Amino acid sequence: QVQLVESGGGLVQAGGSLRVSCAASGTIFSVDEMGWYRQAPGKQRELVAAITPGGVTDYAGSVKGRFTISRDDAKNTVFLQMNSLKPEDTAVYFCHAVIKSTRYFRGYWGQGTQVTVSS
């Protein structure tokens, strides 16, 4: 059994910063790509940022230059540093990781953490 637990969300004023973290625990043999998605009310879930085991990153155009994704493989943890936050960044942020827990890799989701940016 694998669990992803996010932390670090909250309320911040526009222009501020937040850092969210996601730690994977359980029976883990290997972790492949890790990423962050977000879902605002009435909208579809969208990819925010992703990072491969080799450190290659990918960002949504709307956050490029403001958000930074990183990972600590020793702790099976992924981080998202969010700077210059805008009200349109308000959403529930979900962690996703592709993990080999048994014979196969499969995707796992965290429970989500609320990020609210006030104007």
Could you explain the architecture of this structure?
- Strands 2, 4, 5, 6, 9, 10 and 11 form a seven-stranded mixed beta sheet that branches. The protein has a four-stranded antiparallel beta sheet with strand order 1-3-8-7, with no helix packed on it.
- The model has no long low-confidence stretch (mean pLDDT 97).
- It is 0% helix and 60% strand.
- The radius of gyration is 14 Å and the shape is elongated.
- A hairpin with a 4-residue loop joins β7 and β8.
- By secondary structure, it is mainly beta.
- The chain starts with a strand and ends with a strand.
Q: What value does the average pLDDT take?
A: 97
The count of helical stretches stands at 0
The percent of residues in helical segments reads: under 10%
Q: How many whole angstroms does the radius of gyration measure?
A: 14 Å
What is the percentage of strand-forming residues? Answer: over 45%
Q: Globular, elongated, flat, extended or rod-shaped: what is the shape?
A: elongated
- Model regions low in confidence, pLDDT < 50 over at least 5 residues: none
Specify the structural class. Answer: mainly beta
Order of helices and strands: EEEEEEEEEEE
Q: Report how far apart the termini are.
A: 41 Å
Main pleated-sheet profile: 7 strands, mixed
Total strand segments: 11
